[in-house]
Amino acid sequence: MKITNLGFPRIGSQRELKFALEQYWRGEISQEALVAVGNTLKARHWQWQAEAGVELIPVGDFAYYDHVLDLTATLNAIPKRHRAVDDLGNIKPIDLDTLFTAARGKGHSAQQVCAAKMTKFFNTNYHYQVAELHEGQTFSIAYEQIFDDVTQAQQLGHTPKPVLLGPVTFLHLSTAVGDFDKLSLLTPLLTVYQQILQRFAEQGVTWVQLDEPVLAAELSPQWQQAITQSYTNLADNKPAELNILLASYYGSIAHHHSLVSQLPVQGLHLDLVSDSSQLDLFSNSLTAEQVLSAGVINGRNVWAADIDLIAQQLKPLADKLADRLWLAPSCSLLHTPVSLDSETQLSASLYEQLAFAKQKLTELQDLKGLLTSNDHSTKQQIINRCQTRRSNKAANADKHVATRLTKLTPDSFQRQSCFEQRISAQHQKLNLPLLPTTTIGSFPQTAAIRGLRKRWRTGDLSSQEYQRQLEQVTKDTIERQLKIGLDVLVHGEAERNDMVEYFAQDLNGVGFTDFGWVQSYGSRCVKPPLIFGDVSREKPMTVEWACYAQSLTEKPVKGMLTGPVTILHWSFAREDIPREQIANQIALAIRDEVADLEQAGISIIQIDEPAFREGLPIKQSQWQHYFDWAVAAFKLSASVVQDNTQIHTHMCYSEFNDSITAIAAMDADVITIETSRSQMTLLDTFEYFQYPNDIGPGVYDIHSPNIPSVDDIVTLMTRAAEKIPVKQLWINPDCGLKTRTWDEVEPALKNVVEAAKVLRRQY
To answer: E strands of 38-108, at which residues?
Structure first.
């Protein structure tokens, strides 16, 4: 019986990769120094896995920016605009800088290059770079990192198991440039996959993991046929000594049992955390030689597993399959923090409930021991530990929260009047011009601001002085916006470390880590809170800063909140009650804050829901149930205000075609969305759906250092006006400006304001 793993976090327990990347992008270290950091992290993580008993070490899960982008580079599918050329005009080979250009864009002049589109990876908070494929696209091996990593792992004494996104999922996640069927590219794509497998075999590899999470979706017959074609083709053309482990995760694949059980693969990985019932279904259809990788440890949450109960479930199968049963996490551990080893500030009761990536490998080791060891004393210690943890696991029930939930009525989820009446009252109160300009919320978190926060946390700066200096930063932010000429201002959020953690720190039933960082994209990491009990709010969280900022100007300043659905999705939530119940608990806490902001005189309140679509189940047949409770939670948080208080929300990196009805049902007075990287093509939805409320399509890609010109913004907004009435449009960036510098932000926003003037004259 093997312990196996599907992938490990890349960033390092102290975010070493993040800091090295940002140093490289600033020109402070060489590419060789960046690669040295990467090599050190890979070696460390491989060694940890080996020490935990992982025999086949996943290789190819490490990426300097994004593993999907790495595969796109390996397949020679990076767009020409991202490729460097030599003095003779010849395209240079793909290297790390090519990947960074594709991910981040390049340039501040007429030569600037637009980055590739970025969107959520299935229903996770990880973002990937979308491959752009053209009709007649050719593929070839053009980037060597995965082969180099195999060699590095072997030189360190490990047996590597290369991990690649499968061909069908790669095509499914890509975008077709032009009007053609992406599946027409499957045959040439498979030819290169064959070459990749041949290269692995020549390196002495015996197992390759091909990830097809798309199998968790409800695939059309054409895409199902693509799965059959792909794995039949690869089986017919791969070296005989090479074995394929087909892995799917993020959902059950039981609906594709007939399809998957007939594939000529040597191993199958199942996400049994998503659906344990599929275990019997697939185990009964295995051939006599096939391996079953049982994904029984949750790779997407941080709570310690009940491995004694898991062992009871697996014992009959372990007896039946013996060495053909592999023990694994449900998916890559990319979605969990690296290690609990640095967490010295957690309470003992909370600490014992947790397992980060490194500890999840230990759980697999203990699980194997329960299934195979004859050491009854050690086995009993493991069982006792599990039972003690369950008995000590406080429900943290709050009777007040439960009572509030039971008193909710249909009116609790509705604004007082329809949008037409509300917007009329808001126009009268706010007196904004046509095409109002605003930003999404945050302004640059400079080194000085981060330094202030660090000095305050370590006690080197008093709370009084910290408050005074943050007030000065807020005042400066307001003055900059006034000078730029924006219509609706924000206070800049200098006091906030993270849009979820900041709020969760003031909520009951929520805990925090010091180093529980998870990669969101590139060097961007988040530290999700831990929702372990019933959630409630004791006191106002944002009112003081909103009022201070509003006191500095007569222009409206938005109150900035994070919505209940996003707080839920961007936290590690308890698993003992339904997620919709947790969402309503959070919504009541946000509702209290909204009421306090309105009472304090804040006329515009933004409740951000960037993760709204992230919670969608992969199976479309399950969407409506999710939409019902997610929309209800947002409306519960917002419906307490009067008609003339304007409610905004923000969503980023979402496809709207399949969720526009639900988004409209949220009934926010104004929604701002990401559209610049798609050149407003995301608004195609509005050609057939008449969106009822106001909308701000983003015109400034804040994930790139590029500064949009006035002409660029005018062009984008003109396209938007072809699909949405001008009277409903706002002008704003794609997202918050936290990660940008003032040298980038100020000229970009000046262009936004100037473009608004041009457009107002035009319309």
So the answer is: 54-59
